[in-house]
């Protein structure tokens, strides 16, 4: 990545699931320039759930704004 939050992040797409599993099994924990690799599978269901939550929150904020509703989110 090129932002401070994503610096050092990379995404690799494999055509073969067996190659992806092999990479995950053998590269996770591998030391590169005194940094350890963390290899994870992409979990599309989590990504889509997060997008849905963000969209619902945005819609809710618009409705609150439209009807002048204020809430105290701190509890």
From TrEMBL:
Keywords: RNA-binding
The species this protein was found in: Timema douglasi (Walking stick)
Record protein name field: RRM domain-containing protein
Taxonomic path: Eukaryota, Metazoa, Ecdysozoa, Arthropoda, Hexapoda
Molecular function as annotated in GO: RNA binding
Pfam families: RRM_1 (PF00076)
Residues of the RRM domain: 3-37
Superkingdom field: Eukaryota
SUPFAM superfamilies reported in the protein's UniProt record: RNA-binding domain, RBD
Keyword RNA-binding: yes
């Amino acid at each position: 990545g090129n932002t401070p939050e994503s610096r050092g992040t990379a995404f690799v797409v494999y055509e073969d699931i067996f190659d992806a599993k092999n990479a995950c099994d053998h590269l996770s924990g591998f030391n590169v320039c005194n940094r350890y690799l963390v290899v994870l599978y992409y979990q599309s269901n989590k990504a889509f759930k997060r997008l849905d939550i963000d969209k619902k929150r945005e819609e809710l904020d618009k409705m609150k704004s439209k009807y002048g509703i204020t809430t105290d989110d701190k509890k």
